[in-house]
Amino acid sequence: MVCGTANSANLGVTVHVEDDRVLGTVLLDTRHAGAPGFAHGGALAAIMDDLLGQVLIPLDRPGVTATMTVDFHAPALLGRTMDLEAWCERVDGRKLHMRGEIRDGETVVASGSALFIHVDVSHWETSGHALPPHWAGWGATADSKP
Ligand SMILES: CCCCCCCC(=O)SCCNC(=O)CCNC(=O)[C@H](O)C(C)(C)COP(=O)(O)OP(=O)(O)OC[C@H]1O[C@@H](n2cnc3c(N)ncnc32)[C@H](O)[C@@H]1OP(=O)(O)O
């Protein structure tokens, strides 16, 4: 729902990995309004969750959000391309401490911190839905297993 290109209702986030960081952009519009002209905080929280979750890829650790805090520092205006950045601050066994920012130019609009928990890919098999084939090797290089 945030960056999936197969979903026409996605939030239009694009991300890529540079070294161990996730960088990206998002351009919100009137579909994502809270107050007129301003992005809904829930949209920003969804973007933050997904952005921090993308760090699981360079970390090569499948994981899920256990808890997340989003601080809203400045209004996020619709119609502006905002920059996204996220990284892993610390790994403590299965606990993955992520941080990220959503910026409009030099202004940090929102910052986020989350605890992700490293899980085995089988975590998602309980839904009964098929997993993307490339998830099969996810976590193969992780030095500890859930
Ligand atoms: C590339 C993909 C991008 C996707 C981005 C989107 C990310 C998401 O939205 S994920 C969806 C939302 N999150 C979920 O559905 C998670 C639901 N929760 C769960 O499945 C489980 O509670 C889970 C896996 C997090 C933890 O369960 P479990 O594996 O049994 O571990 P558990 O033993 O309870 O906890 C492990 C450790 O984490 C700690 N912990 C767990 N939850 C929390 C929490 N909420 N706050 C603080 N600490 C926590 C525990 O205290 C424990 O610590 P310790 O080892 O020191 O005792």
From TrEMBL:
Gene3D superfamilies from the UniProt entry: Hotdog Thioesterase
Q: Which UniProt keywords apply?
A: Apoptosis, Cell membrane, Cell projection, Cytoplasm, Fatty acid metabolism, Hydrolase, Lipid metabolism, Membrane, Transit peptide
Q: How would you describe this protein's topology in the membrane? A: Peripheral membrane protein
The keyword Cytoplasm is assigned to this record: yes
Q: Has UniProt tagged this entry with the keyword Metal-binding?
A: no
Annotated catalysed reactions: octanoyl-CoA + H2O = octanoate + CoA + H(+); hexadecanoyl-CoA + H2O = hexadecanoate + CoA + H(+); decanoyl-CoA + H2O = decanoate + CoA + H(+); tetradecanoyl-CoA + H2O = tetradecanoate + CoA + H(+)
**InterPro entries annotated for this entry?**
HotDog_dom_sf (IPR029069), THEM4/THEM5_acyl-CoA_thioest (IPR052365), Thioestr_dom (IPR006683)
* Domain Thioesterase positions: 37-109
Q: Could you tell me the EC number(s) of this protein?
A: 3.1.2.2
EC category: hydrolase
The principal localisation class reads membrane
Q: Which family does it belong to?
A: Belongs to the THEM4/THEM5 thioesterase family.
Q: What is this protein called?
A: Acyl-coenzyme A thioesterase THEM4
**Taxonomic lineage:** Bacteria, Bacillati, Actinomycetota, Thermoleophilia, Solirubrobacterales
